[in-house]
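Sample intake sheet
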Amino acid sequence: AGGALQEWWGERRAAAAFGGALAPDGYGRVELGGRSLAFLLELDRGSEPHARLQEKARRYARELPASDLAAQQPLPLLLVPSAARAARATAELGSETLIAKVWTPTDGGSPLALLRDAHAERSHHSRSPGQPLADRTETDKTDATDLAPPPAPHA
């Protein structure tokens, strides 16, 4: 039960969906375990100041609900190069707007598994206090071994 990229928009087209008020690095939609999962990609190479990431999180909170993509409920996903950077981003940004995950092209593992887990994390955070976790969906049951990492980049 693997997954597949169904749609991808680069930075220019993704920015157009926000009238230029926000410029994600991309927008994608994958089919995974029988579900369509949308995401907005923010790729952080560790060079952006945290103040800039905080401003991006505020813009996502403001612009996403009023955008052309609102009906898709895309997950704003911040990919960072290290666990320390992810921990700091999560502490400073919270996990309500941008979900920070560690991923690099050379040793980041399966992008599909990362996306599946990030969507599950968002679902967990969006529960009302005291609401029990729902039964796991088929997507949540997908074995991570079915989500093989991409081939290594060519040197």
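Comment: The first helix runs from residue 11 to 16. Confidence is low (pLDDT under 50) at residues 127-155.
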